[in-house]
Design a protein that fits this description.
This protein is of the alpha/beta class and 412 residues long. The strands form 2 sheets. The protein has a 6-stranded mixed beta sheet, with helices on both faces. Strands 9-8-7-10-11-12 form a 6-stranded parallel beta sheet, sandwiched between helices. The C terminus is likely disordered. The structure holds adenosine-5'-diphosphate-glucose. Its EC number is 2.4.1.15.
Length: 412
């Protein structure tokens, strides 16, 4: 059986659909960043052609799915790139069982209603039988958008349109926590842990791991670290922040600007607080392999996740999964979906408030071991029980049930 079937898109479609409509319009909008500021007018002018490309690309996915579809298959569409797909699939065969899951936040209906194609996108998603989000808030925003923009009726189960019920619910994602725990037992990872401990001996290790994306709040994070250093001279040679930022969407100008901005702040901080023997901030523009990442998570004392918005944020889960020995502290943005599941164990912060984040860094570095243990235990229990496997099984089983219910209603 083929487990993966590619859908080939030509360069023009990739430009208009993927770089354009998906990453220049939907991604910033869903993260409350609005449309790109400088080329707002150009974006508005090219909006329709980008949306047409978006629909064409989704239709191409639908054509490939339809070619391989067999009766009884369940189809699960993922993310904001494929909001038009449920409609295309149902037009092909209304008996297909179709689910759609959004990995980003779904914003307040007041944000969504600024989108010129707001109604068409909502109606396409509503063609699905089950619509899922990471949190109840996102689900609630989606239902509000359907009631306010389309005038439909929202119920506790979802949205009803002309007798067709679309179930809308929260399915918070998790990670494969066992994979991380198994990795920590491998000799190569243990060796890396020893090397890192030697390398950073005498210093507390703080860690940030993000795609270099404006939603991840990397400039805000390192500005907060700078403020912490300004206000706590006694910590200057006792702490290091490792920021691992994997470059992403490098052909989009906004992302190129972000990279230069981050490099400039990093240079300034190291110039101000570095000594001949070391710098307080190590910033790497690259991704790490899985074992290197596990070792880094394991030696970290404080993880800093300061997303300005984030659907969930799995880095926070991965850090917790690797911390059974150390019981480090997680500083977590209240605007990440993960704040709803790991909020009781983490130190929650508003990433825009640099003073608050700087104070939380101090609290985390000086926290009593009993308090760290209590907080870690809470989060570890969550991360190891709410796994990726459980997430997928719950969604698919609920998708099956939804369709079964619909069939029962038809029979009545
Ligand atoms: P992302 O925005 O990519 O995902 P996140 O959930 O943090 O964000 O997942 C990132 C993944 O990439 C993690 O597994 C992490 O380990 C890895 N990664 C990041 N930087 C790395 C680096 N420098 N080196 C190696 N690995 C790195 C989207 C949404 C999130 C949502 C997920 C899942 O934006 O909000 O949690 O989907 O639904």
């Amino acid at each position: 059986m083929q487990r993966c079937i590619p859908v080939f898109l030509d360069e023009e479609i990739v430009h208009q659909y993927y770089n354009g409509y998906c990453n220049n319009i939907l991604w910033p909008l869903f993260h409350y960043l609005g449309l790109p500021q400088e080329d707002r007018l150009a974006t508005t002018r090219s909006f329709q052609s980008q949306f047409d490309a978006y629909k064409r690309a989704n239709q191409m996915f639908a054509d490939v799915v339809s070619q391989h579809y067999e009766e009884g298959d369940v189809i699960w569409c993922h993310d904001y790139h494929l909001m038009f797909l449920p409609k295309c699939l149902k037009e092909h065969d209304r008996n297909m069982k179709v689910g759609w899951f959004l990995h980003t936040p779904f914003p307040s209906s007041e944000i969504h209603r600024t989108l010129p194609s707001r109604s068409e996108l909502l109606r396409s998603v509503l063609a699905a039988d089950l619509v899922g989000f990471h949190t109840y808030d996102y689900a609630r925003h989606f239902v509000s958008a359907c009631t306010r923009i389309l005038g439909l009726e929202g119920t506790p189960e979802g949205v009803e349109d002309q007798g067709k019920m679309t179930r809308v619910a929260a399915f918070p994602i998790g990670i494969d926590s066992d994979r991380f725990r198994r990795a920590l037992e491998l000799p190569t990872v243990k060796e890396r842990i020893c090397e890192l401990k030697k390398r950073f001996a005498g210093r507390k290790v703080m860690l940030g791991v993000d795609r270099l994306d404006m939603i991840k709040g990397i400039p805000q994070k390192i500005l907060a670290f700078e403020k912490f250093l300004e206000e706590n001279p006694s910590w200057h040679d006792k702490v290091v922040l490792l920021q691992i930022a994997v470059p992403t969407r490098t052909d989009v100008p906004e992302y190129q600007k972000l990279t230069s901005q981050v490099h400039e702040i990093v240079g300034r901080i190291n110039g101000r607080f570095g000594t001949l023997t070391g710098v307080p901030l190590l910033h790497l523009d690259r991704s790490l392999d899985f074992h290197a990442l596990c070792a880094l998570y394991a030696v970290t004392d404080v993880a800093l996740v300061t997303s300005l918005r984030d659907g969930m944020n799995l880095v926070s889960y991965e850090f917790v999964a690797c911390q059974n020995a150390k019981k480090g502290v997680l500083i977590l943005s209240e605007f990440a979906g993960a704040a709803q599941s790991l909020g009781a164990g983490a130190l929650l912060v508003n990433p825009w408030n640099i003073t608050e984040v700087a104070n939380s860094i101090f609290t985390a570095l000086t926290m009593h071991p009993d308090e760290r243990e209590k907080r870690h235990r809470h989060n570890f229990a969550h991360v190891t029980t709410h796994t990726a496997q459980e997430w997928a099984q719950t969604f698919v089983s609920e998708l099956n049930d939804t369709v079964v219910e619909a069939q029962i209603r038809t029979r009545q």
